[in-house]
Each structure stands twice: as C-alpha cells, then as structure tokens.
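Sample entry (129 residues):
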Amino acid sequence: VSLVESGGGEVQSGGSLRLSCVASGVTFENSVVAWFRQIPGKKSMGISCINTVDGSTFYADSVKGRFTISANDAEDTVYLQMTNLNPDDTSTYYCGVGPAPESLATGCPRLPFIDYNYWGQGTQVTVSS
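Predicted structure, serialized as tokens:
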C-alpha cells in the first residue's frame, strides 16, 4: 500500500501548482482523502479534504478560494490545484486517506494517525516572494 504525492516545486508568489496523490494497493472509494502540510518543527495542518462518497469538500480558511481539491475515482488519484500561491504556502504537503466521515460540515478529520490509515511521503512546495 502506498500513496505517492507529486507536483511540488518552486514558484514565485502568485504562481500555481497542481499536486497529485496517487494510491497503490488501496482504493479511494468510500474514503476521505486529505491534504495536510507541515513545516519542520511545527504541527501539521489539514488544509483540504474530499469525501469520495458524495464529493463534498472542505478547505481551511487559509487556502479557501485559492486551492481546489478534486478526485479521479477511476484512477484513485486526488489533485490539489493551488493558485495565487504566497510564501506562507511554503511547506511539505502530504496526502492521507481514511474512512469517510458522515459529514465534512465541521471540517476535515483532524487527527493524522487516528483518522487516516495511510500517508504519502510528501512533496515540497516552495514559494518565493
């Protein structure tokens, strides 16, 4: 079982990147797939997730309106389209998959090692000013 993130890189402020999370050995069916980001020495933060049961999504305030999460169920791939990037978005981005919650109304499941079964190795995003 593995999740592999890709698409990170270095961009200037205002630029865009699209991250991909591809599953192998596990399906995204009936799951929540989330993107977290973490800066060394700081706690990881969930920024977006998608419930593959009903397609509902959630975004943290810091990325709302700039990031879009989507899923390709047939390919067990989840994307994170990031636009209007700024230096505060610099981080390592991780995707995780877990059982779908009843609702995302109150946010993405928050506990990385309880709410999610598998994680990828991360992809680095660096935004320069």
